[in-house]
Specification:
The chain is built from 11 helices and 14 strands. It has 315 residues and is an alpha/beta fold. It folds into 2 domains: 215 residues, Rossmann fold (3-Layer(aba) Sandwich), CATH 3.40.50; 65 residues, 2-Layer Sandwich (Alpha-Beta Plaits), CATH 3.30.70.
């Protein structure tokens, strides 16, 4: 299968410190690939090297077979970029921002007019096309930024934290557009620190931690690597002040986390742990409102893999 992105030993040093440390991976044509990690993990630096915005210190990268350094022009013709930090001209109307971007990509006059109209309609902003962008909300600006990245009709779209901090309406629109683009054959490379977003959106994810790749696979396959991390989520009608301490001391429970009105109990034996939980609830006259069992989440995978790297002595 052809690769849209092929990366080998890609490295970037700042002040002799590797912020991206010899990473290697491939992104297949037509997939949504997630680059997952906390802030400062090296996600944006990697994307900047792949898009030609930053020169690698070592290693190589190719887009559809074009080396990003030796064949930069041909490589960049394949891609669209949506940075996390807005690249919009606030004093220009939405329409002018899109047309200007199209001119930078040498899109013909007729095509750029057609494309701008389609994209503004797609992002539910056509009626506001003549308004200056500085009056737009953060979510609307994000939609304009994404539209600008699509003006060249790219085969490969780089999205840096596409829905970070956005309102629900804008988030849903962007997710729908991503799905539609992918169905049309566009390959999407998205960086995110939102684990749930990566889990439900991406066909494969790479987990990066302190500049190194910790794992690459489909989200569900990554979850099977730590099957021992299972959990029970329970909510009670009332919660005594000492409940967390009590739950932590139940048989077969390794950890307890409180989230809102619910408690997540981690265990390697959910069936056995449920027996102890029911006994505790009955003894303390606690009425459960909900009880659910869960396998490992992508968040569990991330935490476990980064813990392994931390305890192995990597700096």
């Amino acid at each position: 299968m052809e690769n849209a992105v092929a990366v080998s030993g890609l490295t970037k040093y700042y002040n002799n410190i590797p912020v991206v440390d010899h990473v290697s991976f491939n992104v297949r044509v037509g997939e949504i690939f997630g680059f997952l990690g906390p802030n400062g993990a090296g996600k944006t630096t990697t994307m900047n090297m792949l898009t030609g915005l930053t020169e690698p210190s070592e290693g190589s990268a190719a887009l559809f077979g074009y080396d990003i350094q030796r064949e930069a022009l041909a490589a960049k013709r394949q891609l669209g970029i949506v940075p996390e930090i807005s690249n919009i001209y606030d004093d220009l109307p939405a329409w002018d921002n899109l047309i200007f971007t199209a001119e930078l990509y040498h899109v013909g006059r007729r095509e750029r007019t057609k494309r701008a109209t389609e994209l503004l309609n797609l992002f539910d902003l056509f009626d506001r096309r003549t308004e200056k962008v500085k009056g737009f909300s953060k979510g609307m600006k994000r939609r304009i930024t994404l539209a600008m990245g699509l003006m060249s009709n790219p085969r490969l779209l780089f999205l840096d934290e596409p829905t970070s901090g956005l309102d629900v309406h804008s988030t849903l629109i962007i997710k729908d557009v991503m799905k539609q683009l992918n169905e049309e054959g566009v390959t999407i490379f998205m960086t995110t620190h939102n684990i749930e977003e990566a889990s439900v959106t991406c066909e494969r994810v790479a987990i990066i931690h302190k500049g190194k790749i910790a794992a690459i696979d489909a989200p569900e396959k990554l979850k099977t690597t730590i099957e021992s991390v299972q959990s029970i989520e329970v909510a009670f009608e009332r919660t005594p002040s000492e409940i967390v301490h009590d739950l932590q001391n139940l048989p077969l429970i390794s950890e307890v986390h409180k989230a809102g009105d619910k408690f997540r109990l981690y265990t390697h034996d959910p069936a056995g742990a449920l027996s102890g939980l029911c006994e505790y609830a009955t003894k303390n006259n606690l009425r459960p409102l909900s009880v659910n069992t869960f396998g490992p989440s992508l968040e569990d995978v991330f935490v476990r893999l980064t813990e392994i790297r931390a305890t192995s002595g990597e700096k």
